[in-house]
Amino acid sequence: xxxxxxxxxxxxGMLAAVNPCGFALLPAYLSLLVVGDDxxxxxxxxxxxxxxxxxxxxxxxxxxxxxxxxxTPVASTVARHLPWFTIVLGVALVGLGAWLLxxxxxxxxxxxxxxxxxxxxxxxxxxxxxxxxxxxxLGCTIGPFLAIVASTLRFGSTWDGVRLFTAYAAGMGxxxxxxxxxxxxxxxxxxxxxxxxxxxxxxxxxxxxxxTGGYVAYYGWYELRLLRGEIRTNAVVDGAGRLxxxxxxxVEALGAPGLAAVFAVLLAVGLGAAIAGxxxxxxxxxxx
Length: 288
Hints:
Layout: H1 6-16, H2 25-34, H3 41-70, H4 75-101, H5 119-155, H6 158-193, H7 198-227, H8 235-287
C-alpha cells in the first residue's frame, strides 16, 4: 500500500480532538481541570494538566486502537448502538455538574495523598474520561483513523503502523494538552490573586459541565433519530456544528508547528513561574 506520511496521521489526531460528535467533551474535560485540587501553585497545576492529558489521551487512543484492529468486522453493528452511550454519558455529565453547582467536591477514587495533587483520583478518572470521549467520537472519527492508521497496521508493516498510531496520539494530545495548560495557568493565576473565588470557580466548572453534558445527551438523541430517518437537520446541532468547524479551522490554521510552539511557551511560563515561586519561598526563612 502507498506510504502514508506521519504529518497526515498527526493532523488527523489533532482534528479528532475537535470532531463534530465529541467536541463538546473538550470543554467538559477542561472544566474538570478547573474544579480540580488547588494545592501546590503553578508547578502542581502544570503537572496535573500534563498528567491528566496523558491519561485522557491514552484512554482515547486505546479505544481507537482496539476498535480499529479487533472490532472493524462488526463496526457497523457497534456504531448503531453508540448514540445510546452518548446519551448516558451526557446525562452523567449533567449530574456531575449539578453536584458541583450544589457546592460539593468531586469524589476521590482510592486513598488520597496528604500533599500534592490527588493523582489517585486524577489518572484513572481522566483515562476513563478519554475512553468515554473516544466512544462518543467514534461515529465521526473512526473513518479517518481506519484509513490512515488501522489499514497500515492490518496490511502494512507493524513498525509503520506503530509510527502512525503514535503520531495520531501525539496530535490528539497536542491539542488537548495546549488547552489544558492554558486553563491550568489561567486558573492558578486567578486563584492566587483572589482566593475567595475558588468556590465560584468550582461552580462555574459545574455549570459548564451541565451545559456540555446536556448538549452531549441531546446530540446522542439527534444521532438516534438521524439513524432512524426521522430527521435530516437540527437547528441546535447545526449551530454547534458552526462552532465546531470554527474550532477545527483554527486548529488546521495553526498546524502542528504552531500548536507545538504555543504548548512550549505555556509550558515554559508554567515551569518558570513554579521555579520563581519555589525560590521566593526558600528565601523567606533567611529574611527573617
